[in-house]
Amino acid sequence: MKKIMIALILFLTNNYLFSHCQIPCGIYNDALRIVQIEENLKTIEKAMNEIIVLSSQNNPQSIQQIVRWTGTKEDHSDKTHFIISDYFLSQRIKDKNNNYTKQLIYLHKLYVSLMRCKQTVEIKNITEARESLLYFCELYFDSHGIQHLKELGSLK
């Protein structure tokens, strides 16, 4: 029920929650961005699996579906790249905290894994992306933030 309510809120407030500028407005929802990234990773993984299954079939409909799944995979990778660069790297990660370098390393690893997801259908790239996201979250969030993400169904 809780997940349905969150999804409903996100759907109904889509224009307000997802538009975010780079001015110092102070309105941030870091947990939401992590949930968005995880949702994108799930979509990319599903697309990869569908492409693999459809590749064994040799008919026009399967080829057309492969094209659509490939586009979906690339779109969700791009969306995640945007969250990483325009949200976390541009606005949230500060060189004043103790974990700055480590956070940058794990965001970069996530970024590279997503690039590889666009180029291949190797599931190991999704696994690496999830691991990088987990390590980043452990560095970025305090224990309360980690608990909140787990309650949202993230960081399994």
Q: Could you please describe the fold and organization of this structure?
A:
- α4 (60-92) packs antiparallel against α5 and α5 runs antiparallel to α6 (123-140).
- Residues 14-20 have low confidence and may be disordered.
- The longest helix has 33 residues, at 60-92.
- By secondary structure, the protein is an all-alpha fold.
- It has helices at 2-12, 14-17, 30-55, 60-92, 100-119, 123-140, 143-151.
- The protein is built from seven helices and no strands.
Distance between the termini: 18 Å
Instruction: Provide the succession of SSEs.
Output: HHHHHHH
**Helical proportion?**
over 70%
| Unreliable segments of 5+ consecutive residues | 14-20
Q: How much of the sequence is in beta strands? A: under 5%
Rg of Cα set: 17 Å
Shape field: elongated
